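Archive transcription. Copying these from loose printouts into the bound notebook so they stop getting lost. Printout 1 of 2:
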Amino acid sequence: MISGNFGNISGTGKSVSEGVSVPGDGQDLTVYEADSADLLLVGKGAWLLTAKFVQDGGDLVLVGADGSKVIVRGYFQVGSPPDLVTPKGAVVASSLAFKLAGVPLPQQVAQVTAAVTDAASSVGEPIGRVETINGSVEVIRAGGERTTLSAGDPIFEGDEIISGEDGEIGITFIDESTFSLGAEGRMVIDEMVYDASSQEGNFSANLLQGAFSFVSGQIAGSDPDAMTLKTPVATIGIRGTKVVGKVAQEGEQNTISLLPEQDAEGNLIVGEITIANEAGVVTLNQAGATIQMSSAFEAPPAPVILSPQEIEKTFANVLNVLPTPRGAEGDEGSSDEATGEAEADIIAELNKLTEALQEAVMEGAMQQAKFEFRLDAAKLQIDSFLKPSFDLPSIAVLTAKFAPAAPDFSASVAQLVSIVQSASQAATTAGNAENSAAATAASIGVQIVAKATAGSVGLSNTQAQQLASLVTAPMKALGAAGAISATASSVSKAALAAATAAGKGEAPSVALINALKGTVASLTKAANNVDALVKAAVIATEKAWDKVLSDAKAAKLAGSNTASILTTAKSAMTDNYTDEVEKSLITVNAAMAEEYSDWEVIEYTDLDEFVDDVETGVGAIAYAIVDDEYWGDFDEFKGALTAATTAADNADKAAASAEQTIGADDAAEMLEYAEFAYSWAGEAEKARSVADEYVDIAAMGYGMDASVFDEFQYIMEYDQVAESKAFEAITGISDSVDALNAAQDYMENGAQTAAAAATQAVLDA
């Protein structure tokens, strides 16, 4: 059974199979069909991570140390083999399963038959050497040969390295990066391509278990996304830095820490790593920043800072066996003085970019602090004018004590508390959906800029940016979710204004209360529906990107020029995206139906209808006060309501444009509609800001009756949640666009300018 720590697998839209146990000759045997699910839940505990992978015809056979076996029928014959997963959520990707079984991936077969001229990728050339070794460490070569390693032995692409209980190994690679693996470790070197003349290339390794440390070399200095370490719970993107971590046994926390590294001049520098999995992305850019996680389906947590002593205590052995990088020894190696200066320039720009990003983070923290300060200040003000004065003449105190009870307005305000609470939840749901779209756009966008310019595709930076903009266009268009969040916050402001009046005895009419309730019900439905659509769109975008990259690489192998490769890649996106969304919605609808008993199946073409209902609801609120003398002249309420009407109108336009983006059948249309949706979402946020300006709690709350004090505290807290979530959501997609632009700028050596622009954009937000 899947453990509770497995994470939100339903949110990924992926199906899971646990196989069928088959009686045997005393040995456990479980059989799966390769096409039965997206994920195969294999073994108990960490059985999968230590199993031997064997090809038997078209089947995959896994053999555990205890003799138990797993057979996946047809694994090497299906078009998209499923990933394998442990009960706690550690994943062995299908690409890694192929390598562990010694089976080339289909695209690798095509590449081997093609004319490969890159000397760095020639078959049989070492990519590194063993520098230090303790105890027993073995290697399984790509051809299946198993041998014990010794100091000085060569390391090749495709090697699987396995350390024993007492085994430790330190390796130096040809780009001068260094790596160490601790006891009971297991790793596979997926790719190492390096051109010494340009100091460019790619490095990727898979870590299945064990403690490790890594210091990046020349490759990370030339390309911020060219070095990756993959673990069963996350992928680590290395950007010129030193990393230490542990891929733990099943149920234990996997640990990843960022460390400072010493340059040739003895200065300590700190780079950056990104840690991403199915559920989210986190960036570490401070010395000692550390995260712990146990599942590929749970978002990486916020980092904590560990002291050097804490890190040394945990990782002393693996750090001791790590070879010293040549630059840190003062060895000039094969690099000349000009190259050293270029490396220093890159480091300087990375440091400036890191500083700018830290400033941006601080600005975000300041924004949050402002929200909390406003809430606390408003509470104090309310407390001051609601508390009864005890500085009364004695006879007045006695009179007050025996006076009839004052009117109780709490029941009237309580209805509005429920309304604001529902609006707040709708803003949160839609805002979280928007953040998911933004995170996907940022993550995939940066991947595209890096991978599309690599040798296997060969696009220019400008062409890669064009492709990234197209593939992430649907995520940008789903800023419509942020527009729904902004509308919910605006309605919350109107209800908050109404609560101040109710607290003074001006109870809203039944018609007004019903209109407000109807509107937040429409907002709740719209938020849940757009959340489902974003989940489907995220899955579709990831699959579309896989198709785009595959077709682009095929075009490159066929000898196409870069213009033709770009055209092929764009067509792969527009020809497949709508179908991918519709297929993904089938899975997402099924998952939502399990979560909500009243769930109605949705299509992506329903998006603007969700928001139409919200628009109608806001109109009904306005109609409810047409003939009401008090509410018709209540400027703050009317101002917030007018802003909510504007937000809903813009949200509707954003939704319609998002629909058109998803359904577009050519690149120009997809980009154009995405820009429209993004623009209308921005207008919805402006309207939310106007609604906020109309509702000044410190002024409007004066004179409210003490009977509503408790209710009013709740309503203010719910409203502030709605406001902060809407603000966070609408800026999320903007930040992802900035990230994409910054990635291109970095590739074009413009990181310093991009950092300044990004910081200014945050400060101006």
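Printout 2 of 2:
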Amino acid sequence: MHIPFAERVKYYVPLKMEGDAEYILPTETKYVGEMKDGMFHGQGTLYFPSGSRYDAIWEKGLVVKGTYTFSDGLQYEAEHWHYCDSCDRRFYTEICHGLKPAGISQLTNMDPPRKIPEGCYDCGDGFYNPATRIIKDYRNRFLRNADDDEHEWIIRTCRKGWDEIVGHRPKL
């Protein structure tokens, strides 16, 4: 695993990080854990700017075993993942705190949801402007340019910053 930049590391071996470390990547993701030969090695946690985290056991920069936890406390399960699927479409906060009364829909796991800028989409880690094909984080900092596949996925599935009248569908 190549990491181009770090702000703080507690122990140095010439040109390599070694021992217990706190390592901040350019994306503001922070690694706290053990390092060996300049690579994640042993127990360590990646803390993401969104508030989620990845706890793992690493070997020479590669994950041996890990657990991803979303910012709301929901843990991802690679096997038998049934969160917000066609059988149970509730958000995790609705599972924990119950459903809202009729007429007050919860649109996202975050309640109230973020306000989406006009003409943009909320793609999960920021806002997407289809006119520029740029995704910016929720603090309006550049994240990435969307390729054709991501553009199509966002347009097809993500929440948008405007309402549309969709009308009646006689046949489903």
